[in-house]
Design the sequence.
DNA sequence: CACCGTAGTACCTTTCGGAAACTAATAAGC
DNA sequence: GCTTATTAGTTTCCGAAAGGTACTACGGTG
């Protein structure tokens, strides 16, 4: 467990600053996609699994748990039958969506400027 | 190797879209920090290692190679003595800095709204 | 020739991540 | 009453990737 005690002002470049942990959480493919998937309203586990094409249930669970622990999303259980669990953004999570959406949109808008991904993979 | 052939329009939510690989590269702690560290001019390997507090040389090398492969940074070797290697942003990399800087800055600006990191770690 | 600085690599351990199977709770159908 | 279906995961297994520490390569300097 790393120490998380940065005095002075906050700085993501300081390994011991809590900012670093938060950046590590948000600067992550699945976190960025999951938060984006919740932007227009709560969604259930299965809906998120479908939307986040390619994610395994194990990783999705882990991602959602981390986001919940950090106060970015809420997890609400409806004890109906069958069981029903809804994930939704907290105010903090909703605010975090802005920079993440910007990143996702930048990627889509600029994808044609990147080299062919198959060629990059071969070169390794 | 995943297939990287998404026809139709581009979408980061599609696992087979090249967007997904690019998002995976950019939505990464070390990539976000490394590109930010190059924002105000070229830097050498050692300078980056110092700036990216906590990064090991191996991980830094891997991160820089991936960014280079994707055309986000340039690697210039100066055959001076001792050897001198300079990393700098390409135009594409410079453009990518904007959303990444926004994300880093959002984290710093909102860090006080997050739960205490030590408490989160204990709860696991 | 030992030593320095720079930019990495080699080796090894640990963790992550993916696929598939399995669980729990309950209800509907036969 | 037994089987099947649904939802939301968990468990297990295993290969891939991340990560840390120590070492190497290179050429000059003292």
Sequence:
């Amino acid at each position: 467990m790393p120490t998380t005690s940065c005095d002075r002002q906050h700085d993501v470049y300081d390994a011991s600053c809590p900012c670093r942990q938060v950046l590590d959480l948000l600067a992550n493919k699945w976190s960025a996609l999951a938060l984006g998937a919740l932007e227009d309203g709560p969604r259930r586990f299965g809906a998120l699994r479908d939307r986040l094409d390619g994610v395994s249930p194990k990783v999705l669970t882990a991602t959602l748990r981390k986001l919940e622990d950090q106060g970015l999303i809420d997890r609400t259980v409806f004890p109906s039958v069958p069981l029903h669990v809804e994930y939704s953004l907290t105010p903090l999570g909703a605010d975090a969506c802005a920079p993440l959406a910007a990143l996702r949109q930048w990627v889509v808008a600029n994808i044609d400027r990147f080299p062919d991904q198959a060629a990059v993979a071969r070169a390794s």
Residues 49 and 55 of chain A are 6 Å apart (CA to CA). The mean pLDDT of chain A is 90. The beta strands of chain A are 43-44, 73-78, 84-89.
